[in-house]
Amino acid sequence: MELYELINYIDDYLRVNEISDVSINGLQIEGKKDVKKICLGVDSSLEIFKEASKRKADIILVHHGLIWGGLKNIRGLVKERISYLLEKDISLYAAHLPLDMHPEIGNNIELVKILDLSYPEPFGAYHGVKIGFKGKYEKKKSIKEISRKLEKSLSAKVECFNFGPDKVESVGIVSGGGGSAFEDCIKEELDLFITGEPSHAIYHIAKEAGINLIFAGHYATEKLGIISLGKNIEEKFKIKTEFIDIPTGL
């Protein structure tokens, strides 16, 4: 397929041009015009670029791209990464907040699906935009049950802090480094907050507010959306995609 046919579809589907973000979302590096193979990943790194090249990828779709707020210079590691992609003629596409907040395939709605939460609604303000989701259990569940479900589904170790009720009904979710959205849990009187990266800053606040915490890993909670995007593209265009799993354990 033609490169910009794919790019225009993803731009429209994820609404990348409508969502303000520190990441420069969309096509960051332009490679060959014809796309036959797509690789997917969470982070931009030489490791993933080299693995994608081995797999003969024409484009790499990632959650964390190379360009954040614009480039001040092209030198050092930035030069090395960009040079490698240009040399191999591989395109790079980034989708940060648009992939966190997407209501069908985003990181947070995928976590809602994993946990079988009912009545999902946008939740968790980040620069005035709700990028996460909240939901409820029709039958309350223990933190242990929820943790086991996450560990099994994400293949990751989770950290739990039982600061709230033993049985959980309401849950707020913001993937990755979503700790800044915790205040919304207090405002909405939720029983549990789930995010990726552990946040020292919210430990005592959560304890004093009586709200349970689960940290399920930045990488683990943010691989879901890019994998789902790959499945969506396969169904739409009948083109092969491959997820390159390079977990950080963080």
TrEMBL record:
The record's annotation in SUPFAM superfamilies points to: NIF3 (NGG1p interacting factor 3)-like
Q: What UniProt keywords are attached to this protein's entry?
A: Metal-binding
Q: Name one GO molecular function term.
A: metal ion binding
**Entry-linked InterPro entries:** DUF34/NIF3 (IPR002678), DUF34/NIF3_sf (IPR036069)
Q: Which PANTHER family match?
A: GTP CYCLOHYDROLASE 1 TYPE 2 HOMOLOG, NGG1 INTERACTING FACTOR 3
Task: Name the family.
Answer: Belongs to the GTP cyclohydrolase I type 2/NIF3 family.
Q: What is this protein called?
A: Metal-binding protein
Q: Which organism is this protein's natural source? A: Candidatus Methanofastidiosum methylothiophilum
